[in-house]
Amino acid sequence: MSDIALVHATFADAGEAERIGQAMVEAQLAACVNLLGPCTSIYRWRGVVERGDEYRALFKTTPELARELADAIAAAHSYDLPVIEIWPVAAGDAVLDWVRAETR
Description:
Layout lengths: L1 E10 L2 H13 L5 E14 L2 E14 L4 H11 L7 E8 L1 H10 L2
Antiparallel strand pairs: 1-3, 1-4, 2-3
């Protein structure tokens, strides 16, 4: 088993998630993006509890590219404070080889 990085982000709508996901794969910052669909988020923002529908995306990349990918997602994102999380994940060597081959 080897490590890859999963980068998780939420977006305002499905179109934004797809547009940014496509751009990150085309830029070879991610080998793949899974668009996970709508979710309901409940969060505190500026002292008020808010609730809203968001769209989740999970990007597969290398540990070396994870921060650059997260920064690129944030730069293209519509939110003032996009929540982008980086998760190290154990994956099979074949998956790691594929992720490395499809990213720069």
